[in-house]
Amino acid sequence: FDAITEFDFKGAALAMVPAIYHNKYRAKVGISQDDITYNAGIMAFDLAAWRANQCRMRLIRGMQEDPQMLSFAPDQSLAIKVLQKDLTQLPLRFNFSTLYSLFSYKDISKMFKCREAEMFKQEDIDEAYRNIAVYHFIELQVGKPREKDSVHPKKFLWKEYYDKSRWSDLPAPKVKLPLLLKLQRITYKLMPKKIY
């Protein structure tokens, strides 16, 4: 993690990795097409800038003024809307998510017609993959790796660390899936990834 402690915030108070969301998320949060969306799985702070720019108080005001914004992913939604000008981008390797393990850049660009889909090219994704600092296991259709019936493509990676942990004797939880998610999971198992 030396690289993150040496990260240049360029005057920003907060750094996160850009994330890809459909445009309806922007409308829900109340941000423009020009604003960048981020994932709050990993957040790095420049505490001096955070205090100087009164970010904490601005976040509190943001919650009070628009409590509806907290209905989905409240941590990142609030930061994206209220602190957009105080945010900078962490490299992808610090929050490398399931999305990039499941789909190619080309597929991602087709699925998400928004600004962030253009942010990381295939070579950026490949470089981050070779140097992952934090792998973010997001659920999507494949499930969390700790679940009994998860088909997550990186479950083996999670299991490697899980087996070394003090919780390694806990049984994997069985998760009751809604019908749509069951169908998506079956489709994922059976179909070639290019078609899926």
Note down, in words, how this protein is organized.
Helices cover 40% and strands 10% of the residues. The mean pLDDT is 85. The relative contact order is 0.14. Helix 4 (55-65) crosses helix 5 (74-82). The chain starts with a helix and ends in a 6-residue tail after the last helix. It has ten helices and five strands. It has 196 residues and is of the alpha/beta class.
Provide key terms for this protein.
196 residues; alpha/beta; three-stranded mixed sheet; two-stranded parallel sheet; 5 strands
Secondary structure: helix percent: 25-40%
Gyration radius from CA atoms, angstroms: 18 Å
Which sheet architecture does the biggest sheet show? 3 strands, mixed
Low-confidence stretches: none
Strand content: 5-15%
Which strand order does the major sheet show?
A: 2-1-3
Mean pLDDT over all positions? 85
Q: Could you tell me how far the N terminus lies from the C terminus, measured between alpha carbons in angstroms?
A: 35 Å
Class based on secondary structure composition and strand pairing = alpha/beta
DSSP summary: helix tally: 10
Number of strands: 5
